[in-house]
Design goal:
Radius of gyration: 18 Å
Number of helices: 3
Distance between the termini: 28 Å
Order of helices and strands: EEEEEEEEEEEEEEHHH
Helix content: 10-25%
Largest sheet: 14 strands, antiparallel
């Protein structure tokens, strides 16, 4: 499956099929504030929260990510509710080196999201085959993707193979979480003041640092 982001902000973008330009999915993220009057007897506080919602082509909600500040605290995929980011990934150890972070999926023990400063891929670790890729600021020419020569000239594309144990909604949600983690870990901040609040260092990054597997 190949999807193209209509905007550079992947948290607020339509996902279209590039062959036909038909709408596949829509991702919207909205902010709101929760006032906690019981946090301190003498002061009131407000915590910024966000909710990322994924819609199908009919406008139906198929998945959601609830954020408190910069932390994903609740994930909903269909009728399944998951508390925190850990429930979205596997229990085996991560792959960690100075320039690559690999997080296992929960639906296949041999599938890993591999994050680097310049790439995010979904890898079948057993066969060493790439099953998914995020092509940032790229141009789709025939069967190939070419990096655009200047920022903003290309588009962002998400390419992945389907898996019998994972829905498209799950792949989209896990991609979003991993891309946030990737940009946080490798300090890939954006120019958008609104987006950069979510891209900066998050508890997801701290969680990734605690996981260990042999270096690659």
């Amino acid at each position: 499956m190949l999807l193209k982001f209509s905007k550079s902000d992947i948290l607020n973008s339509a996902l279209v099929y590039p062959e036909t330009s038909a709408l596949g999915y829509t991702i919207l993220t909205r902010s709101y504030f929760i006032r906690d009057n019981n946090k301190d007897l003498n002061t009131e506080s407000e915590d910024e929260s966000r909710r990322t919602t994924i819609y199908n082509k009919l406008g139906e909600v198929i998945a959601e990510i609830g954020w408190k500040g910069k932390q994903p605290i609740e994930i909903v995929i269909g009728k399944e509710k998951i508390i925190g980011a850990k429930g979205m990934f596997g229990c085996s150890s991560a792959i960690l080196s100075h320039n690559v972070l690999g997080i296992p999926t929960r639906f296949d023990t041999e599938y890993f999201w591999m994050a680097a400063s310049d790439a995010l891929t979904l890898l079948d670790y057993d066969s060493n085959q790439t099953k998914g890729s995020f092509h940032s600021n790229s141009m789709h020419v025939g069967e190939r993707f070419i990096a655009a020569p200047i920022p903003g000239l290309g588009h962002d594309y998400l390419e992945f193979e389907t898996h019998p144990l994972a829905s498209t909604e799950e792949l989209l949600v896990s991609f979003i979480l991993m891309e946030v983690l990737r940009r946080s870990r490798f300090n890939l901040h954006t120019d958008s003041s609104d987006r950069s609040k979510l891209w900066r260092s998050t508890p997801l990054a701290n969680w990734g640092r605690r996981l260990r597997r042999k270096s690659i």
